[in-house]
Amino acid sequence: MEAKKSPSADLNKTVGLFTNIGLAVAVGLTLAAFEYKSYDDSTLKDVGPVNDNFEELLDVPITEQPPPPPPPPPMEQPVIQEIPDEVEIEEKIDVNFDVDVKETTVIKEVVITEAAPVEEKADEIFDVVETQPNPPGGMSGWNEYLSKNLKYPTQARRMGIEGTVIVVFVINTDGTIQDVEVLRGIGGGCDEEAVKVVQNAPKWEPGKQRGRPVRTRMRLPIRFKLS
């Protein structure tokens, strides 16, 4: 048999009412909490009368700016005057010769004495003379003499040495040659061969200074070249 409930005992009928009532009460308490104000009950202290008059306004004077200084006057530009290229300058020059020349004034004759000729020393050796010494037959004869008498040293040929030997020597007044030295050599026996050939050379025509034969120092190159 199915049990039946009494309508008065059904609790679901009042659930909505109590829910609305609880919601209304909660909202009311929340609003009351926000609107609640508290006041301090402490008494106010008397600090005396206030003499400051805030209604009075300070009169601030207007600052006056001084006027700007006047601008400087414009600079005067120099006037350029055109001068012609050709200008005639008239200038009077007074010439005053303070010399009393009389007809009886005698001018002394200037006598130029010729200096005595400088005697040349016999042993003096000249590097530069008016007339240079010359070998027999000129330079072509000298080259021919070297080609016939100059022998290429075996050591220099074997070592492949070639170059130019510069020989310096003195030619006496009679054309003989002395004081043969090597000024610049190349070695390998070429220096000794060049000295020997110059020492055995025939007499040269001596150099001359003022028409007189003098001793002259000569420098000649002797070239060694492998064929």
TrEMBL record:
InterPro entries named among the record's database cross-references: TonB, TonB-dependent_transducer, TonB/TolA_C, TonB_C
GO process terms (BP): protein transport; siderophore transport; transmembrane transport
One GO cellular component term: plasma membrane protein complex
Segments crossing the lipid bilayer: 15-34
Signal peptide: none
Single GO MF descriptor: energy transducer activity
Similarity comment text for this entry: Belongs to the TonB family.
Record's protein name: TonB family protein
Taxonomic path: Bacteria, Pseudomonadati, Bacteroidota, Cytophagia, Cytophagales
